[in-house]
Request: fold
Amino acid sequence: MSGTGQSVLRQAVESLLRARADAERELHDVATRAAKAALRPSEAARAARHPLVRHAADDTAALAGALPAELTAVAVATRTAIATEIHALLSLLAVDHHQLPPLPPLDPVALAVPGAAGFVRAFPDGFARSYVATVLGDLSGGRATSKADAAAQPAARQLAIDDARDRIVAAVSAPHQAVVRAWLSDEACHAVEIHGPQVSDRELELRVGWTRPPDHSTPGADPWRLRPDGKVVSRHRAGSEASRFTSPEAFARPIDVLLTHAGQYPGGLDTFFADHADDGVAAFFLPAGTAGLGPGDTFGHRGAGTGTTEAAQDWVRVRADAMRKDGECAPPVRTLAYDPLAEGDDPGVRMVFREGPAGWTMTTYYPSSAPGSDNVRLENPA
Reply:
C-alpha cells in the first residue's frame, strides 16, 4: 500500500473487510462441499448388505456430522483474527488522526455470529462500529475510474454553462431574477459551473474521484492537469461528495424560498445576511422540504464508505495519495452514484454568501445529504 499513514490505515481497513467477506464465503462453500462429499460414500455404503460395510457408513456419517462444528470454529477464529487487526487499525486512526480516545475492546460474543451484522456489532459503539458499518456497507458497490479517464474527459463548454444560467434565471420568480442573475454571473460564484443542470453524471464522477472540475478549461476554472509522470495537479476543492441539480427549476426553487424569506426580514436582504454571518460569510442550509425539493431533483456521486465524518476524511486522504505520481500513488478510490435528497440522513441544500466591496454575493450553492457544521438552518422560513 502506498500513501501517508492515515491513507494506509484506511486502505488496510478496507482490505481486511474484503478479506472477511471472502473468508466467510469460502468457508461456507467448503462446509457445503465437505458435507456433501462425506455423505455420498456413506449413502453408498449403507446400500451394501455386509455389516462391516454398514458400520463404515455409520463412521463416515459421524465424521460428516462433525464437520460443521469444526468449520464453525475455524470461521469464528478467522473473524476474530480479522476483527482484532481492524480494531487495532481503527484505534490508530481514532487517536492519531481524529483526536478521539482509545477504543474500548471488541465484543467476542458477537463474533460467534456469522455474517456482516454480527461482525459490525463486535466493534464498540460510536466511531469504530459506524466506521466498519459504512465501509462494509459499500464494499460491493461503486467503481473506480483512472487518471487517464479524467484526463480524457472532454472540456466543458462555456456556451452550455451560459445557457444553463439563463434557464435558471428564467425559472426564478420575476421579482428575484435581477439579483439571481447578478449572483450567478459574479466571478466569485461557481454554483452553475459546478452544480448546474448542464453538468454530466460523468463529470460528477470524475470530480469526486479525481477532483477534476466540471467546468474544466473554461475561463476561471481550476487548471486541472495530469502530468507525464502520472501526478494529478489540482487545486480544486472537492470533498467526498459531488452533486448537481437535475433541472433549472430544481436549481431555482430553493433560491426563491430564501429570497422570499429574506425579503420579509426586518431591514431586508443585506440585514438578513449580516445578522446570520460569521466573519463576513453567511452559510445557510435549507432542508429539502423547505426548499421544495424531492427525490430526482438532484443527483451526485460520493465516495464509497464515507458515511461518517471520519471515514470521509480518511477516504479523501486516500484520494489525495492516489493522485500522486505513478509508482508512489495509492490505488484509485471508488465512488457510487446517489441522490442526496433520497439517500441523505438530513438532506437539503447549502448556500454560501460572502460580503465584498460591492455587497453580498453567492459563492456556492449545492444539494447536500446533510447540513454543514457551520450552516444556519432555515426551517420553513417562508
